[in-house]
Amino acid sequence: MTDMAVMVCGHGSRDVDAIREFERVAAGLAERLPEYPLTHGFLEFARPIIRHGLDKLREGGATRILALPGMLFAAGHAKNDIPSVLNRYAAEHRGLRVDYGRELAVDLKLLRAARDRIEAAEAKAGDHIGRADTCLVVVGRGASDPDANSNVAKVARLLWEGMGFGWAEVCYSGVTFPRTDAALERVTKLGFGRIIVFPYFLFTGVLVKRIYRHTDEAAARHPEVEFVNAGYLNDHPLVLDTFVERVGEILEGQNLMNCQLCKYREQMIGFEDEVGAPQMSHHHHVEGIGADHAHAHHHGDGHHHRSDAD
To answer: How far apart are CA 99 and CA 4, in angstroms?
Structure first.
């Protein structure tokens, strides 16, 4: 039996469907990595929390845990909240080594998965409107970290040029700007016959469902424009491939985040006061809160200090 194990760390959600999708991805990774015990945990809103997942692996004999952030981009959750939980846990358990991997980031495999989701939406909508007369709207989660937000813009540009759309717009479901509803209203004025809305998210949840609702509302206001909802990434095989690659990077010593534009290390314009901020989680007081007793992992509505939490 190996003494090495894998831990997939998620944010958690008040949406039962989002947790089930996360669990399916974790199960898919376990199938691809049969040589390692693998489990998952969440920062908040769902169980098991990260500490309990670590307990399970340690009690099963693991002395080295390879921990992955189950997130597309590195913002506060991946940079501060998750590593602070992992570091505290490792400090409390002598002899246990916890190595932290990097986020999925901007990756060619994920861009191919995104292309597949967009093409599937196009196929369903029909070919009566070409890409030159289509505007692609890429919606990111939104964060208080400009580096993470800029990655959404990069993904949008790569998809725009690579797939040949007439235009692309970037917006966010919360925290930063422009918001989805405002962006959709703006792009209707550009004169395109079709607008494809693509949530660049791993899983469904409160935010993704809100994005689709905004799209439906915009379509009702503008019947002259065809609105198409594209699916999010979910458990696309290339998503699983990317997670597996991140595990390999830890073992090879190549799991370095790109910190060149990190607001905690460099004085980013408008965020100068955040350089050197202590690495600490603001989720410790709500771990596991939000219990839906009808579901095995006890998640549901719970209090969160940010209205845009998933």
So the answer is: 11
For residue 85, what are its two tokens?
Answer: 């939980």
Q: pTM for this structure?
A: 0.85
* All structural domains of the chain: 4-105+236-286 (3.40.50.1400), 108-229 (3.40.50.1400)
**Per-residue pLDDT tens for 127-170?**
999 999 999 999 999 999 999 999 999 999 999 999 999 999 99
